[in-house]
């Protein structure tokens, strides 16, 4: 059976400046109509996909989770896009 919500699973990325990386990702998706939640890092929820990006309290690491509605290709594309922004920060 096809997964209803294909998910990236938690991806950890070591970063120098977690805040700057989160801000860059936020800027990329700002104005696209996502529902935003700052309870635990940055969460943006769109019609077909959503993500959460948060920093670890104990190490210079960002944790990313991406999920889509039944669309693995979209999930993988967005995961790559967000990691590309994060990886370009260092």
Map the helices and strands.
Layout: E1 11-14, H1 18-29, E2 35-37, E3 42-45, E4 49-55, E5 61-68, H2 72-88
Antiparallel strand pairs: 1-5, 2-3, 3-4, 4-5
Structure overview:
This protein is an alpha+beta fold. It has a single domain (11-88), classed as 2-Layer Sandwich (TATA-Binding Protein), CATH 3.30.310.50. It is 32% helix and 29% strand. The chain has two helices and five strands; from the N terminus they run βαββββα. The protein has a five-stranded antiparallel sheet, covered by helices on one side. β2 (35-37) and β3 (42-45) form a beta hairpin. The protein is globular, with a radius of gyration of 13 Å. The N and C termini lie far apart (40 Å). The mean pLDDT is 94.
CATH first level: Alpha Beta
Quote the distance from N terminus to C terminus: 40 Å
Structural class: alpha+beta
Considering the protein shown, what is the CATH homologous superfamily?
Alpha-D-phosphohexomutase, C-terminal domain
The total count of strands amounts to: 5
Number of domains: 1
Chain-averaged pLDDT: 94
Sheet having the most strands:
5 strands, antiparallel
Q: What is CATH's topology name?
A: TATA-Binding Protein
Give the C-alpha Rg.
Answer: 13 Å
Q: State the CATH architecture.
A: 2-Layer Sandwich
Shape: globular
Helix run count: 2
Strand content: 25-35%
* Strand arrangement in the largest pleated sheet: 1-5-4-3-2
What is the share of helical residues?
25-40%
> Low-confidence segments, ≥5 residues, pLDDT <50?
none
Give helix and strand order, one letter per element, not per position.
EHEEEEH
